[in-house]
Amino acid sequence: MKKLITVALVSFFVFCMASAAMAAAPIKIGALFSVTGPASFLGEPERNTAQMVVDEINRVGGIKGRKIELIAYDTGGDSTKAVQLANKLIKNDQVVAIIGPSTSGETMAVIPVVEKAQVPLISCAAAIKITEPVKPWVFKTAQNDSLAVARIYEQLKKERRTKIALLTVSDGFGASGREQLKAQASRYGIQIVADDTYGPKDTDMTAQLTKIRGVHPQAIICWGTNPGPAVIARNAKQLGINIPLYMSHGVSSKKFIELAGDAAEGIRLPTGKVLVADLLPKNDKQKKSLQSFIKDYQHHYRTEGDHFGGHAWDAVMLLRYAIERGGDNPAAIRKQLEATRNFAGIGGVFNYAARDHAGLTKDAFVLVEVKKKNWTLVK
Amino acid sequence: MEFLKETMQFVISGLATGAIYALIGLSFAIIYNSTGIINFAQGEFVMLGGVITIFCITAFKLPILIAVAVAILGTTAVGVVFERLAIRPLKNATPLALIIITIGASILIRGLVMLLWGKDTQALPAFSGNDPIEVAGATMLPQHIWIFGVTLLVIAGNRFFFHHTITGKAMRACSFNRKAANLVGISVGRMVLLSFGISAALGSLAGVIIAPLTMTAYDVGVMLGLKGFCAAIMGGMGSGLGTVLGGLILGTLESLGAGWISSGYKDAIAFLILLLILFIRPQGLFKKGETERV
Fold this sequence. Notes:
The structure holds two protein chains of two kinds.
Chain A: H1 2-23, E1 27-33, H2 40-59, E2 68-74, H3 79-91, E3 97-99, H4 104-117, E4 121-123, E5 138-140, H5 145-158, E6 163-169, H6 172-185, E7 191-198, H7 206-214, E8 219-223, H8 228-238, E9 245-246, H9 254-260, E10 268-271, H10 287-301, H11 307-326, H12 330-338, E11 343-344, E12 349-350, E13 366-371, E14 374-377
Helix pairs in contact in A: 2-11, 3-4, 5-6, 8-9, 11-12
Chain B: H1 2-35, H2 42-60, H3 64-87, H4 95-117, E1 133-135, E2 138-140, H5 142-164, H6 166-176, H7 178-183, H8 188-214, H9 221-234, H10 241-261, H11 266-280
Antiparallel strand pairs in B: 1-2
Helix pairs in contact in B: 1-5, 1-6, 1-8, 1-9, 1-10, 2-3, 2-4, 2-8, 2-9, 3-8, 5-6, 5-8, 6-8, 9-10, 9-11, 10-11
């Protein structure tokens, strides 16, 4: 009998303490990033940035006095693991929303899970199929490849260059870029005279470039992530090819200039505005967000923040404002996210709507050219 | 004319890539000949050569020649330690078990390098500038000449070592018949250790001279290792001219295939050749079939 009373008393106290803790409970936000594995160049800055933004928000008192708790898991770039961890975030951790995953493949795998559980997801991956067709609970912050393609084609049209050659990497990123490049060409009156590919681990692309040189295009567009495009830049210089060479936003970091060396001079690429924040005119809507992101990242991690970290910055900020406006239950967050207008973040100015969960226009990209080992804006 | 000029460029690019495959192929063959195992950590030796050189240059500001020497010595040490710790203790293991161990070692080395030096790709400055040289209408870089030169030196050195020195001859003896070699007083264990050392040194040398062209990162060894393995198979796993020719043919076919047919099939061409050779001439392109007496 005595024992029973003790148990009852203890249970009572535990219960009291638990409910006391509940009152001040933080708002739990889940995050899935591929911090390790092949896509770690995306996941690592994203995780760092998300943690940094959450810390900064908590430092100034959280959202309406409630702290945010970021529960971040590493998916290793593996879709199966991403699905398991998404379930864990929803069922065990009971998060109100999820940020990530970093890659398009993982995002597509996680979508059915969040749709069923009705938890908002803000993906940091770029593929157009994530938000097209629109899924009620899925948003994204990374710019569509199609916007980058449009940026390049616009410039080519302006310079009256109509015959172009494509050289794309044979992985998901390259395939998606190639698809967009081919789909939009006719709209800009552009004719594709060569369409070549290279392997992500290839070390010499002179064969492809020699072939391309033979058909005399007026510009070459290369779509890939490091180190391939740097090899291509060097090979093009070796072959003495002097027609304009365009790269994708996949190489928009100082690393590319470092790897390509002198061969990077004159190369143009579309990029988010992080790289050229200082060069932007004062009236640019994003300038304030960009400078604060760059300053904070430098302060926390002693290195330059990039375009990929920016996707996580936008995701956390979008959530923050949605929760501020509508409270912290998943349905309210979803509704408020959809109502986001004119949010000037890192990736661009976001305007979500019931029929648009990507929210950006081609103004999210600027065209830059490498001059003297630095970026300059192409006017 | 245009066609000839293009073809010339394909051939020169192919030969340059092929020379690298040949060097890596040779280092595969050396270990195979003294132990009968295929060392799948060979690509990692190549990677270590480049990565350690860059590390020495950026972290300690060493002149490039000393950095290269440190990288080759360091990789050789890794090869020797690997043999001591992972191969020698397993006295009676089957070649299959040993091959699986080498795969494990390759994953371990890759992981350690990733943790120590990060995941970023890095470039080594070219040894003698980046100004293209014109050869019969095609262009190549000074670094390509380095690659050809080093490959020639290695072939000559290899030939001399295995045919004209006692140690080299002893290593060949082990490859023909271990038991007999042991009976005439050759320390087989030492020869195996030596083969790992030489092979690691060769691999890292290949890694150093290609780093300015192809750049390097913790995971470049995988594909280079596989291509080198193809070259060695084409040469019938011999440590001589066969493997070198195998590498050059592979590189040229890849480049011609990418240029004439489609760049998408470049790797497919390499592996198709490998499969065909394994089916039709498993003893290699240039070797006469060996008959085994029972």
